[in-house]
Amino acid sequence: MQKYGELLRKLLSKRGITDEKQADIFLNPDYERDLHDPFLMRDMERACVRFFEAVDHNEKIIIYADYDCDGIPGAVIMHDLFKLIDYKNYEVYIPERNSEGYGLNLDAIKNFKDKGAKLIITIDLGITAVEEVAQAEVDGIDVIITDHHLPHEILPRAYAILNPKVDDPEAEQARYGAGYPEKMLCGAGVIFKFAQGFIKKYGEYFKIKNGAEKWMLDMAGLATFSDMVPLTGENRALVYFGMKVLRKSRRPGLQKLLAKMNIDQRHLAEDDIVFMVSPRLNAASRMDSPYRAYELLATADEAEAGELANHLSKINDERKNIVTQIMREVHKKLEKREMKEVIVLGNPSWRVGVLGLIAGKILDEHQRPVFVWGKDENDCIKGSCRSDGSVSVVELMTETRESFIDFGGHELAGGFTVHAEKIHFLEEALSTSFHKVKRDPSASSGQANYDIKAELSAVNMKNWKEIDKMSPFGLGNHKPVFLFESVKIEKIKKFGKNGSGEHLEIIFSDASGKFIPAIAFFSGHESFSTPLEEGKRVKLLATFDLSRFRGREELRLRVVDIS
User: Where would you tag: which of 2, 11, 322, 480 has the fewest CB atoms within 10 A of its CB?
Assistant: First the structure.
């Protein structure tokens, strides 16, 4: 480990990386070494052969993708694959979030049958669609499911299932172990493995250059960041190389969107994707049609790309206004209520498309599982849920299944449809079930909430470069948090778009006389463990942040907490 600097060694040891070989692997991802053989995944061979047969016989193929920032980039990966093999007889279908909701639906399948479709490939959905897959098979349509969500006890009888969370019961244990090695791929990560596998098997036949799938890593990386899966193992390699491709990506829509947000593509950062790009892509399904986001990423037309970038930015601003209005109503409702173990809130007038955002904001404020509901265009009560980690929302809903018509998701996030007569009893039912499936809090306690204790003099470019070697950062590889003790608040200034004042810039100093600016986004004087006052001495928890606003580099801090 001696070839690495002291700061980097300390930070790596915090992540359990204590020898040089581990450090080399972590700090220097390698495409060939770190990406697993796609054919280790159950049904990969079967899926590739069926896809080849469909192409060879010019069958109508439907790509059925989820409407979020995982499914849509996944659909673009398939669009790129079709381009590589010069295949035209396909259609991308993305269900409308507000009228159709999540997953395969029977009306869409009837429509595909009428169009003469012979193969459906799902992206980021389908693992619980037992009835819909059965109907497709009856209608003479084979289904290849590519998904990463948790399966139920009964799997759909699809032609092939690509899902790292579904093990192959017939796998040779010596070769496969317990199935595919990376269980935490996102949906676009799974379809990327399919594209990689297909090119590996049939690339020579279609005269595709070896490694052509690497240009699709921008979409796999974008989705891996957006879907909040752990950035460890194979996912770390996907985002590491995904960032390299994103910074060079020739997609006109991506270029126009970044330009609209004043982001220099060459210096695109993880936070730009999570806080700027993803919300605009997700705004398409929340406020309009998910196709707008797909078209933006897939188009080769500069003019169309410019129009779509403008449109997504506009509807994202509208989305922000709606969320602000609903949150005002949420605060009024919660003021009058006694807090239970699970919060359930809703209003028939709340737009279903933004409920996940609302649930996330309530979770941040109250640190307990949250279920938020509204009514969709078909008068169904639908909602989104989020967990603080004290419980898996899927387990919680399974324990309370009699209240739901349908549900699904991950441990920390999910969606649901509720019986109208049971919605007003849902909070009570979930709070009762919570005690049966909650996790032992002692399992995760005892963790320090910072990585390194330091002086403000540590905030310099040399240390920034050391920290940056550990990027990309995200879930499972957090930005290192520094504790600065007894720093003085010199100045507090509000700033924001159009004078909104929704963010803070705070200047800190310490005994050595060093002055450092720090940014706190979407924060006010009362947002932290202690109210902010100029002249006050405080403890500061913060991460390093390199701003390149208007082409000017400035190293600053980003506030985590002040106490």
Answer: 2
